[in-house]
Amino acid sequence: MRAAEVQRWGQPPSVVLIPDLDGTAPDGDVDIAVEAVAVHQLVRARASGRHYSTAGDLPHRVGTDGVGTLLAPGSAAADPPTRVYFVSLSGSFSDRVRLPLAATAPLPPGADPHRAAALTNPAMSAWMALKRRVRLPPAGWTLLILGATTSSGRIAARIARSLGAARVVGAARRPDALAAVASLDSHVVLGSSSDPAATDFAEALPVAPDVVLDYLAGAPAAAFFSYLAAAKPDRPVQFVQIGQMAGPTVAVPAGVLRSCRLSVVGSGFGSWAMEELYDELPALVSAVAELPKEEFPVRIEPLEKIESVWAAPAAPEERLVFTL
Hints:
Number of strands: 17
Order of helices and strands: EEEHEEEEEEHEHEHEEHEHEHEHE
């Protein structure tokens, strides 16, 4: 069967032939005929060998998730066919995968498999952060998204609304890009990385947010902590670190930790158990199916073109999906 693998770090994946799955899936596992897989930031980071979840061994099987059809014993489609979203950190860009049934969730009737493959992983970052890494206030809570114009940030605004956020504030460098993000109530334009304190959070956030989802790290996170030191909030602020598009570190001033009711946690593979993710998959997949199509465009290509398409320029808001 076919698979996409990285043979050398720094090079794009290529399609190779690998052995078919052996025998019948053991109890608790299922075989899936893969239909659609997507190139997320996580997938690219792992394919470069730089992500913490990559073991470092070559060749590296590309992919972390996808959409496919459950197979009955003997490699025939189950009757009736069941289309599922699945998670697989051992790679997903292959004609067949074998994994625990618990790592799958059925797609809702009528759900687009390409969109499910494209959007569930970026939606997962906000979903797992808000469901498993913080304690959400019962009602009327405010969310700040650092990196609101990233794919994950734009989806996070919608996910937060579905989970009860009353107010969502987005922060990014470009005002025009912020204006194009639906579901934001207010905007924060991030200033120069050389002067993080110059960013004005106070106008959009006269009261500190209850939750922060940080997709950037680096200077934007430092700017937020400078704001927090001046704001001196009298209620808890929960800061969740998710991505590092602006730098590899998050520097929290010691005085801010002592003077504010601040908690700082991370969210990603390792900060929650895979069983926790599996428990959330059905609700997450259903929420993704409700995301507006016009806000999240998807580009579809055949797997055979992965080597040429992998590094090709793409629109920032466009999600790249390969079909098998």
